[in-house]
Automatic annotation (TrEMBL), chains A, B:
GO terms assigned for molecular function: ATP binding; L-serine ammonia-lyase activity; magnesium ion binding; pyridoxal phosphate binding; serine racemase activity; threonine deaminase activity; threonine racemase activity
Domain Tryptophan synthase beta chain-like PALP: 16-306
Enzyme class: lyase
Signal peptide range: none
Protein name as catalogued: L-threonine dehydratase catabolic TdcB
EC number: 4.3.1.19
Source taxonomy: Bacteria, Pseudomonadati, Pseudomonadota, Alphaproteobacteria, Rhodobacterales
Keyword annotations from UniProtKB, A to Z: Lyase, Pyridoxal phosphate
Gene that encodes the chain: tdcB_1
Organism: Roseovarius tolerans
GO BP annotations, alphabetical order: D-serine biosynthetic process
Entries under Gene3D superfamilies matching the protein: 3.40.50.1100
Length: 324, 324
């Protein structure tokens, strides 16, 4: 199981590879939220999302002989790009199984980063069976998107940086809002904060209709989403929290926060105008919660992740047309 | 006159105030340019452009009694916001004289940052006369946008950071492309590189029709633009290089680079998709030169500034519609 020692080891393996992202702010966002807002812009991470951290952590932790056979991953896009880049850095093959309806940019980028992309139909095909066959044939190692200790350790390095920067800013207590799909980033950050900034509390943020982590936390057990389709916030849509991530969330996190798709689009427009950052819808839900769920947040400062920026231009233009 | 000692002093005064921006990159941009491309994202600076550095440098260098009366500036927008924020940080009044046709966002932001905005008509009114009257009445100190040694020193801190990060990346020789209006950023960076990275060479980048710095360098004397209107790249449109900045450019810079408005828009779209950054048209001309003027650049790496990101949504959407 992932612990702080594993996270620190992952940080050492990522040093000089993952970008050390800052905490950004804007007085205009502070005014909207009624408290100081600090943004951890993982959209600036390599491949445009935090997923590179976990992918590089997991692939760098493999025994070299195993790694040489290559890796395989299932992903709607951001994990795919992270695995593709990390595998290419080690010079090993990567096969990525992606849903046919994933954003075009994510499919194109994954291929351009050197991976072999295998598309499947979300409704009619069994991605696990496809993956099992390919893995058996080629000796590929599966890099899971979140329910994998070394992936969680890699995402947790985000939390080490948040703890360090919060301390430098004199922030001792605050909610840390995290865009949450399967819970890899949220659980990793929660573990890092437990060790390095115990006054900071991680809280998962999700889009309406896909609030499995929020409901799981409030019920104390894993709950599934009713919908199986994807939504605007495709990057963070999973059926349920992970078997490994949920116990960590349950032990360490505050209540989840849920925002509407419109609020996510509005937050994207504000990230554009006030931070000069490109956020994808799923990557903007934590900022949306910081700005529009102010009654559910405590303290005079809030920290939130922008977990990714891989958004097609038409969706971004919708956000600007409606809210900029 | 600005020298490296003044730049280092400005850096000390800016420490803990100006953001320390990184150098970002993308393998996709490297492919387009045919060499490694490193981007200095000053759009992430406070107020969304590098101008905060020079404004804070100049205002922090004033004698406190003088500063207490307040400051005044002429600006189409980015210098205005930088002066407004820096003045508010010192708790002193700021009056900003802005053209009536400046982007709405820049006028709004300057007011929101606490400054008093006085609008004038670019064609029919004499901004210098308006400024002189106000300054005399209230004892305001003029903070010039570029032809002022302490402003150049502040902008030069950008060059200190570029030199430091280039050394860490092992880049010993490269062109450093700088979005150039009056030449404050370009001359400041050139002075910093002369001292800290003599293998790096600053080169001004401009939009077609407003290439006064490029023509001035090639003629060895200050040349004016024929057009007096503003253009798409409003942030970096000036009639001519400064009397103080030009001798520095002439002594230290390589030839200028000129890009079309369409190339600037294309670079904005690529900064969106590949760097997750919001660049304004004038702030994208150096990236455009790095990507689309590859025959005019030497070496296997190029560094370029994104000087600002204060762009109205409709202009940004035009860039995405046409080039994303």
């Amino acid at each position: 199981m992932t612990d702080i020692t594993m996270i620190r080891s992952a940080a050492a393996r990522l040093a000089g590879h993952a970008r050390r992202t800052p905490l950004l702010s804007s007085p205009f966002l502070d005014d909207i939220a009624g408290r100081r807002v600090f943004v951890k812009p993982e959209c600036l991470q390599h491949t445009g999302s935090f997923k590179y951290r976990g992918a590089r952590s997991a692939i760098s932790a493999l025994d070299p002989d195993t790694r040489a056979h290559g890796v395989i991953a299932f992903s709607s896009g951001n994990h795919a790009q992270g695995v593709a880049l990390a595998a290419s850095e080690f010079g090993v093959p990567a096969v990525i199984i992606m849903p046919r309806d994933a954003p075009r940019m994510k499919i194109d980028n994954t291929r351009a980063l050197g991976a072999e992309v295998v598309l499947y139909d979300r409704a009619g095909e069994d991605r696990d069976a496809i993956g099992a066959t390919l893995s058996a044939e080629r000796g590929l190692t599966l890099i899971k998107p979140y329910d994998e200790p070394q992936v969680i350790a890699g995402q947790g390095t985000t939390g080490l940086e948040i703890a360090e920067d919060a301390a430098a800013l004199g922030i001792e207590t605050a909610d840390v809002l995290v865009c949450c799909g399967g819970g890899g980033l949220t659980s990793g950050i929660a573990l890092a904060l437990e060790a390095d900034a115990p006054g900071l509390r991680a809280r998962p943020c999700e889009p309406e209709g896909f609030d499995d982590a929020t409901r799981s936390l409030s019920h104390g057990k894993i709950m599934r989403n009713a919908q199986t389709t994807t939504g605007l916030c495709d990057a963070i849509v999973t059926p349920q929290p992970g078997e490994i991530t949920f116990p960590i969330l349950h032990r360490l996190c505050g209540p989840g926060l849920v925002v509407s798709d419109d609020e996510a689009l509005h937050a994207m427009a504000l990230a554009f105008s006030r931070l000069k950052l490109v956020a994808e819808p799923g990557g903007a839900v934590a900022l949306a919660a910081a700005l529009f769920r102010t009654d559910e947040i405590e303290g005079d400062a809030v920290i939130c992740t922008i977990s990714g920026g891989n958004v097609d231009a038409d969706v971004f233009q919708t956000a600007l047309s409606r809210f900029a």
